[in-house]
Amino acid sequence: MSQNQVAHLKYRPDIDGLRAVAVLSVFFFHLNHQWLPGGFVGVDIFFVISGYLITSVLYNDCKTGRFNLNRFYQRRVARIFPALFTVALATLVGAAYIYTPQDFASTGAALVAATLSLANVKFMMQGDYFHISQDAQPFLHYWSLSVEEQFYLIFPLFLFLIFRYARRYLVPILLLLGIGSLFTCVILTQIKPIWAFYLLPTRAWELCAGCLLAVTPLTTINGRFVRIPHWLPALGLLLIGCSFVLLHEGPQFPGWQAVLPVVGTVAIIWPRETLHGPVARFLSARPMVNIGKLSYSLYLWHWPVFSLIDYRLYLMLDEMRLVLKISLSLLLTILTYHFIENPARTFLNRPQSRRVAYVALGAVLVLCVPLGLSVRQNNFVDAEISDVAKGGLEFPGNIGAATVVLMGDSNGSMYGKEIKRICSELGYKLNVISVSAGDSLPERKTDSSQLWRDSLDAVSKIKPDYLLVANSWSGKLRNDPKRLVVALDKLKPYAGQIILLNQPPILPKIANRKSIREGARPPFLENTDVRAERLKVNEFLINMQTSGVSVVDISRHFEGKNGEVLFLDEHGRILYHDPGHLSGYGAEKVHDVLKQALRERPAGSDPRNDLKLFGKVPI
């Protein structure tokens, strides 16, 4: 084996030290964004390191004739999945005890995406990394692991084929791919910044930077070693430090800004033969190396720990939460590294353990995917548009019992789990055709949506005894209230009783866990204009009441004596999922009201006169 090949495989403590820099930057950024505004670029450092190390191994295997995909993926399984799934399952258990049902459902869906290495795609479709409710997304950091795992699925065979059939063009091809990816990243950051942030094609150039380091010869044409400036690693560390301080989170990243930490990382890794400078000595120091070895477990644990603590203990003092986050993250990291990650990697890496590694991976996939789907389906009942065309989500009841259909948008789906529970208690059959972000009301001036046509068709075929309809009424009826009149005229022939659920109060934007952690406190008052519009539309619903159409007053259950919006129930549980939607606990609060409506609600009565069941509707 040549000296260059040895250099590729020789253990480099400075890279473990560089891992420490990367994970600590992410750790402190998530502890407090103001401490290290650009600390999130630690992920970019990890990408370069991963590209370099993986390609070093693969390239050496190609040169020595030992390339073997089975062996490669065995190493990846041993390295990645034991700790990953340990943390994932522990996180799911924690979320079950801490999160509201909707957020627990979201955690289940995220577990499925993380298990299938599609977390980046899921969060790309969900929203901005920097602005979605981060304490309710304990798998958010898995997006970067999914990017790497997607890279591992594609790159080994690609490298082997290029090495075998176009070896002399390997460096130009990697360079071309890297430049193309960078160009795509820069352009897409301007057009679709969320896509640019999450997708492999726009992040591949960072991995390619490490790949190029691994395959670039260390010698010149005449066989002499390249003279690398002794100050290059110091420049690299300076560039990384500048990126920590100068870069800030937001839609302008990655784009050109990501070049700063990537070039800095390359400058540190590249001098493979000059590892005795001050930067190499700093990174190779025992504390840095030890932290680097713990970096994977620390990266896995820190974010779910931070999320669950912030979610549950949002009223606790910042200093106490800070101490708890640090201590619990470090404790779990050390335990996981010594009792899960390291032993499992040693055992599963043995040649005789290859089958065990693959069987274990398959078993975990079989466990986690159905488990995550079950958590999602049991904690948030919401139809897809395609489901409505098939009659919606169907939950059977007793033979001969009443039939219920739940229809609407996300304001309908927020009652889905509770309506399902009520129907189970009563033995009713339930069909859910409510669709989040959908518009299931007809248009009078333009063509109606396919969702409305499918919803009407579903109701006409099911002919339910009870048709529950809930929408964001102030939004759906703002421009044309008579849309509801048309909808009721079309629906009434097919439903025994139509029950409209009025719109609960809407929280101000400041009423959330993040704002409370930053000092905001109840009581929270509804915006005056928003309140006026909501009361107006709720009054309009009452006027829609005729024989066969009734209204349930949901709103009064979420208003305090002084007009404030109730944020917590008597058990301290959050009643709202977001400003306009009730949480599962909020829906649970009106369980008896909804159940009574499905049992005894007389057609055509005025809910303003029905004080016993529903109280007064504020006018």
TrEMBL record:
GO cellular component: plasma membrane
Entry's transmembrane regions: 35-59, 80-99, 150-166, 173-198, 228-247, 322-340, 356-375
Keywords in alphabetical order: Acyltransferase, Cell membrane, Membrane, Transferase, Transmembrane, Transmembrane helix
Gene Ontology MF, one: hydrolase activity, acting on ester bonds
Acyltransferase domain boundaries: 14-333
Predominant cellular place of this UniProt entry's protein: membrane
Record GO biological process: lipopolysaccharide biosynthetic process
InterPro entries, per database record: Acyl_transf_3_dom, Acyltransferase_3, SGNH, SGNH_hydro_sf
Membrane topology value: Multi-pass membrane protein
Superkingdom: Bacteria
Pfam families: Acyl_transf_3 (PF01757), SGNH (PF19040)
Keyword field contains Acyltransferase: yes
Stretches assigned to the SGNH domain: 400-595
Keyword check for Nucleotide-binding: no
Coiled coil: none
Location(s), subcellular: Cell membrane
UniProt protein name: Acyltransferase 3
Organism name: Desulfuromonas soudanensis
